[in-house]
Amino acid sequence: MAAPASQPPIPRENEVLLITGGDLRLSANQVCWPAQRDMEAKLAAAFAQKGLQLVRAHSFDEKLGHGFISSQRQGMDVFMKIHPRARLVFATAAWQYSHHVLAGLRSHQGPILTVANWSGQWPGLVGLLNLNGSLVKAGKPFSSIWSAGFTDAFFRNALEEWLRSGSITHDISHVHPLDKSRLPAPSARLGAELAAGLKHRKAIMGVFDEGCMGMYNAIIDDELLNPAGIFKERLSQSALVARMRTVTDAEAQAVYRWLVSKGVKFAFGSDAAAELTLPQVLDQCRMYVAAVRIAHEFGCDAIGIQYQQGLKDMVPASDLAEGLLNNSDRPPVFAEGTNAELYPGIPLPHFNEVDECAGVDALVTNLCWKALGLDPSTTLHDVRWGEHYKGPSAKIPNSPANRAGAPGFALETGESTSAGPAPEHIDAFVWVFQISGAAPANHFVGGYAGAVSERQPPMYFPLGGGTLKGIGKPGHIVWSRVFVEGGALHADLGRATVVSLPAEETERRWRETTIPWPIVHVILHGVSRDQMMARHRANHVNVAYAPSAQAADSALAAKAAMLAELGLQVHLCGVTQ
Hints:
The protein is an alpha/beta fold.
């Protein structure tokens, strides 16, 4: 082995180094590069106003057409040329694979600042939250900030604090540790019973290849997972492809016809390279049948398909199948060669992108919601973007304006809880939660009849395949995130309202994000935009509906109790006891 190279020179006093990581897929890096370039120019101008030069630690690659770090090895090589105590900024305007830079960041000794542009069109916020969650899991100190133009007072003040002290202090006063003694007695009993049952019976998460897209934060070590009664069945995506080949044309056609009979619309075209085609959808139907059969054979209680490198080059997107798996009402699947229906009448929870933290959450949600007689259809979403909205809204029964908390379990939202009609106007920050078509139809306005399947973007999905796209129905949800911090499992839980925005505003938000994907308009209770960004430990958030505010409060309390009994450290966000 070669002798270690001499230590890189420390940057000049007025220099701050910049790195950025990107996708593994060349097409995505090339498409996103102009946004990254523009963001870096704005960021450099903000540093220049402080008398500092933002210096790239790695160059633009003329041959590849982008300047992202696009592999783990490249990231390691870049960090070999960075002084370990240099002030370092990681800036992203795109989705990025955190493991491309994680090795270097873990050993870096100087102050680290992660930055993203506040944009829906370019998923820098999603990439930022994933890297932040990965750094939290790794126990690596860092600071983080986000901005649309990098000229607002919030950003300027935060940057000044980081340059002065090497850290940024954000307001996370909305986070409260769960006090189990103050839970409603029925919720505490139910949570304890369900946790005991899970530990006794145990559950299996089927993992179709671990570690999707470098999401280090989405992997739970067995030593943390097993004490909660949950174990992994490590499966291969090659086995999924092989099993798809055993699904007959008639079986695939039966799933497709079932969807058509339910009212799902398919946006078919003739150019398979850019449009959705029937053969793509039938392959997705084969994947759905194959996944259910494999899950049954291994006794899985939930499964996660990675669908990225490798699988994307073999078959169309998994998202249509995933949305079906997560729904209570879904096409029947029978054991091969029999009339025995598998998992009849219930979801087979699917954790998108093999996010094992979301898988634990989905398992617990499934058990709690079924015990309470609620629809257990659940999914994860990206915390994609959001803006303040002031304008008309459809009337929503049992809206935040007239809800009441469950006995002994109140919500802190800053809103009136007096009885009265739902407001006709919204004046609040409304998040866009969005995932790549894996949401269940029960979450949509109109259910399956309100859903359309559109082709996935070619830059991410070369073989196409359709989404399950719809608009989140207005109502009450519990949101949550399981994560790893300090060598232990944690969970954040909160309440939110899904609101109905005018069609033109929904379309505008779709154009600002990803048009083929389902969209949910969310107002978080008691959690501001910047509090959510500062605290959230992942790019993903789990959601599940309840028919009323009181039912949602009771479900949240039971879920919190169950998670705590399983050994997780539970935090209530925007919720007080």
